[in-house]
Amino acid sequence: MEKHISSQFDADLTNVSSRVLELGGLVESQTRHAVYSLAQFSMEVANQVIATEKQVNMLEVEIDAELASIIARRQPTARDLRLLMAISKITGNLERAGDEAERIARMVKQILEQGSPRNLPSSELRIASDLASDLLRKALDAFARLDVNTALVILKEDDLIDAEFNGFVRKLVTYMMEDPRTISASLDLLFVAKAIERIGDHAKNIAEFVIYVVKGADVRHTALTDIEKAVQ
């Protein structure tokens, strides 16, 4: 009987983990398309990103309901409970990353509808956006394999996105000072840059929850050097 219950619980964990990876794949695609809509100033792709948000939200609600059902039926303890708690947090971070992708798409639409100048340095967001998309992919991979080493890499690389964001802000300020007519469009791009940075932050959060599941250590708001010591 115990073996039977254990195998059922394992099946529940496998199923809900698969749903999280499904959500992650959807958000990762949403992020890539949002970046493409910015790079190409594509209204069509921006609309696709916005339409996908409803699917992301529905999937998050379904995963939350499934988690509640598992906890109520199985009453997990120790690492199994940590995993379910982490899955809940990861799901929330993925949904919020999807929100940021949708925000990028809406900013692209606003820029196009206002007929704002396209000579602003939007292409220079490509490095940061590629970094954020790559971090999200790595975070999902780290979760799928519960890989602490990959999680540590993500924590280190998140600083690169922050540096790109700060550099981009300085360039936008220069553009606005040189030509006040670009202020409105520059502010739109600033919101886009911030959304990209936030996607990187959500990937970092997911990496921290992977460490929590494997090591049982809550490393949020902890210096990287201390995290490296904690996972050894």
Automatic annotation (TrEMBL):
One Pfam family it belongs to: PhoU
Keywords (A to Z) from UniProt: Cytoplasm, Phosphate transport, Transport
Gene3D superfamilies named in the record: Phosphate transport system protein phou homolog 2, domain 2
Presence of keyword Cytoplasm: yes
Membrane spanning residue stretches: none
Annotated compartments: Cytoplasm
A GO-annotated cellular component: cytoplasm
Gene Ontology BP terms: intracellular phosphate ion homeostasis; negative regulation of phosphate metabolic process; phosphate ion transport
Domain of life: Bacteria
Signal peptide feature range: none
Cited InterPro entries: PhoU, PhoU-like_sf, PhoU_dom
Domain PhoU: 21-107, 128-210
Quaternary context: Homodimer.
Purpose: Plays a role in the regulation of phosphate uptake.
Entry similarity comment: Belongs to the PhoU family.
UniProt protein name: Phosphate-specific transport system accessory protein PhoU
